[in-house]
Amino acid sequence: MKSSRIAVIAIVMVGCSELDPNVGRLYVEPVDVGDAGAAEDAVDGDDDEPPGTVSFALDIRPIIMRTKDQATAMGVGRGCAPCHLRGVTNSTGTALSGFDVTTLGELRQGGGSTGTRIIVPGKPDESAIVQALRGQFGSNRMPKGSPYWQEEEMRLITTWIAEGAKGSASE
């Protein structure tokens, strides 16, 4: 992603030099901007910073998508998807709250009572998702009922948010 930022800066510099007759045309070495997905990801609102130690796709998404049966078999709390995944037969959470975890982009929109406060990049304690998972937001601790997320899983989500909650909107 950094290479695409460099390419944009180079284009701007060349364009500016053509506007000022006192500045000669700059030569800019071509920059490999990677695959076509890099430009699409930048449009999705991703940061140009390198990812943190916790990945949404690899670390957070599997917890969010965990079903009740998977949680029972693992002896851990279920994810958000059983109630907040658009199109799931029993997605009452999405119907009631508007909160949808189908993609990271939709998760970032939050629900009716949270809005975009669902995730406050850099501030896990101010993020409604962390508050709900801790039982500090509204009347229900999430996931509704129990068992709840384990301490290690809570550490993952709080670290991910503290690191800027990075990830592509399409994840």
Key words describing this protein structure:
mainly alpha, globular, 171 residues, 0% strand, 2 domains
Low-pLDDT segments, ≥5 res: 1-47
For the biggest sheet, the summary is: none
What is the ordering of alpha helices and beta strands? HHHHHHHHH
Terminus-to-terminus distance: 17 Å
Shape: globular
Strand content: under 5%
User: How many helices?
Assistant: 9
What is the number of beta strands? 0
Percent of residues in helical segments?
Answer: 40-55%
**Can you tell me the number of structural domains?**
2
Radius of gyration: 21 Å
The mean pLDDT is 77
Derived from helix and strand composition plus strand pairing, the structural class reads mainly alpha
Write the layout of secondary structure elements.
Layout: H1 2-19, H2 36-43, H3 56-64, H4 68-74, H5 81-84, H6 92-97, H7 104-109, H8 128-134, H9 151-162
Helix pairs in contact: 3-9
